[in-house]
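Lay summary. Proteins are chains of building blocks that fold into shapes, and those shapes determine what they do. In this project we predict the shape from the chain. Here is one chain we studied, written as its sequence of building blocks.
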Amino acid sequence: MIDLPFLSIDSASRHVSLNARDPQFYSDPNRTYAALHAHAPTFYWEEQKQWYFTGYDHVNALLRDRRFGRQILHVATREEIGLPEPAAHTRHFDKAEEHSLLEIEPPEHTRLRTLVNRAFVSRHVEKMTSEIADLANRLIDAFEADGKTELLTSFADIIPVTMIARMIGIPEDMGPQLLKWSHDYVGMYMFKRTRADEEAADRSAKEFADYVRSVIAERRAEPRDDLLSHMIHTEHKGQFLTEDELISTTIVLLNAGHEATVHQIGNSVRVILESGLDPAQMFADEKATERTVEETLRICAPVHIFERWCIEPTEIDGVSLKRGDKVGLILAAANLDPVKFPEPLTFRPERNEGANLSFGAGIHFCIGAPLARLELNIVLPLLFKRLPGLKLAETPKVKDVYHFHGLERLDLTW
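And here is the predicted shape, written in a compact code that computers can read:
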């Protein structure tokens, strides 16, 4: 018996009707994922008109399977797969995405990622440890004496965008503008998107690209010890990143480098406080902290779905797929597969049952994952150490932004 009014599952046909806009769903999607694991871990989502996979092994394998990719037009025409022409009102967004690491496949992806990784190597993420701790402490200093705060605006919004801006070489005072552009930009990936969302994303994509182009010109004239300068001047087999590639890459790094982490700081603090467990034990040492962070990523991932095109005909879990079919991989549900994680809906900071899939896997594994993990491993222990007695002032409200997962606000007292 499935006691969820927004969900119906026909186990025989594996067809599912699920309203992703229902607050009962997006406020607590884990209950739905548990029902799907029990009745139809691979299913056809009628509202989205495509097949989805929730099993850990299937999702993990499909993320690495070269028969599936982020692109399809390198092997098929729009006419062949019935794909409409690009919309005129999203042309600036499409241009910004043209060379995105998230959207391209080998050999272009291999070349681009190699160049970006080489630039990253020149400025190791670990070097930022003291800067992250210093920034977190300064922010806590500003509200510690108040005995209360809204954590997203006073803390979670600020740290990831400040650190990725520093890393790339964008002035920190651009932080609020970067957040606005990023929020508009990722609106293109939400299930609820409207024409107004698309137009906002397109405007912000144009402004974002124009701004990045101006910074690139400055760095070409006067290189600095920052990621953007390194990307401009790093070569691989005699090749450099083009102007358009630099713009796409910088935008994806700024978005990936902070958007999910903002959500995850809030998600993590909430799940820790609601667990009723002792934070001192969770953050007793480095290993305990790492496991706690991974468990929060497992049980309340910030990004729930990655999609892939089927590049060649194949069959997965009894589902026949043809070239041009699109499939959804529900990372957050894979993290709750009871075959992989016993008692998956229970928050257990000591878990050690294998890697979660919150950052993906394979060649498109999130390039911002090391920075996100570092930030979480530093700022979460600091918060709970600096603010003993931390508790929720009221039940947090989840944003209507599925398939992202984050809070509207997080009001805390101590």
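What the prediction tells us: The chain is about 50% helix and 10% strand.
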